[in-house]
Specification:
SH3 type barrels, 309 residues, 3 domains, elongated, Alpha-Beta Plaits, single chain
Length: 309
């Protein structure tokens, strides 16, 4: 019995075992503190964006304290660790090159301002809203594909952070959360063209005019940050004469989340406004001209047969 107690005492007094016990207890305490803070703090935050930021901040703080704890416990062994890491570094870098690239991509996303949670982006043909930016992967709620317009299709996509070094990153919100969009309206030949232009301009101003004022402020802020020319954000109408109709194009600025709803509102108002003109402005549809058949002179002779007597 005494020998068993002596062996247990020697094991507990061993430096390696002691460090492992200290680290285990320390990590457990850190984990409990982080979970306790998250549980008590997150229930008081009702805004989704602020709650997400608080959760990520407390989680990152827990990792930092864990690294500090391990570094303090093994502070007298850091020199030996440096030699060991130097020997294993080449093999680890080759075997985990994609993981290392994804981690570097995570740092680039955080400090380079590629995108942030809540932004609408397109990465390698995948378009959607950023749900979460992890150490290795970015989580996206996808839009489009089999669903028309910029609507969610319900599919969650995980993309490696290393992607930011390989292909362009399209950010639909970022510093300028507006897009230029346009609709085309076919007007029948013989309509009142001036009335059609004024009508389309009026509808564009009433439906999308408020986006023009907001986007102008954002554009000026963007000009202050980057080298950009002045851009027209007010609704603009242009036209071109096609084979079958006069095609009017209404170009306007819209919030990246409201493209579909604004386009629906524009077409709905245009239908009512055109009907109210009493035929002075008419929508056009495809017309076809039939080529006439050339005149033909056909003589039909009827042959009568008589029975022989």
């Amino acid at each position: 019995m005494d020998s068993l107690q002596q062996q247990i005492s020697e094991i507990w007094s061993h430096p390696v075992v002691g460090r492992i016990i200290i680290i285990s207890i320390g990590l457990t305490v850190i984990w409990l503190i982080v979970k306790g803070i998250q549980k008590s703090l997150l229930i008081k935050i009702h805004d989704n964006d602020n709650r997400y930021r608080a959760k990520k901040f407390t989680g990152s703080a827990g990792y930092i304290f864990a690294i500090i704890l391990i570094a303090v416990v093994y502070s007298d062994k850091i020199g030996g660790f440096t030699v060991a890491l130097g020997v294993a570094g080449a093999g680890i870098a080759f075997a985990l090159q994609e993981v290392i690239a994804s981690f570097a991509g995570w740092l680039a996303i955080l400090f380079g301002g590629f995108y942030k949670p809540g932004d609408r982006v397109q990465l390698g043909g995948i378009k959607g809203d950023v749900m979460d930016i992890g150490v290795l992967r970015t989580t996206i709620m996808e839009t489009g594909q089999w669903v028309d317009g910029d609507l969610y299709n319900g599919r969650i996509v995980l993309i490696a952070n290393s992607f930011v070094f390989k292909e362009p990153v399209f950010n639909y919100s970022g510093d300028f959360p507006f897009l230029w969009d346009e609709i085309k309206i076919p007007i029948q030949y013989g309509s009142d063209y001036e009335m059609a232009t004024a009508l389309i301009e009026k509808v564009g101003q009433e439906i999308a005019g408020d986006h023009s004022d907001k986007s102008t402020e954002k554009w000026h802020a963007l000009q202050y940050k980057y080298r950009l020319e002045e851009a027209q954000t007010a609704p603009m109408v242009s036209l071109v004469a096609n084979d079958n109709w006069v095609e009017y194009t209404l170009r306007y600025v819209v919030n990246y989340k409201r493209r579909r709803s604004v386009k629906t509102a524009l077409f709905t108002r245009l239908l009512h406004e055109v009907d109210a003109t009493g035929g002075r402005v008419k929508f056009a549809s495809a017309t076809f001209q039939l080529v006439g058949v050339p005149e033909m002179d056909i003589n039909i002779t009827k042959k009568q047969e008589h029975d022989a007597p």
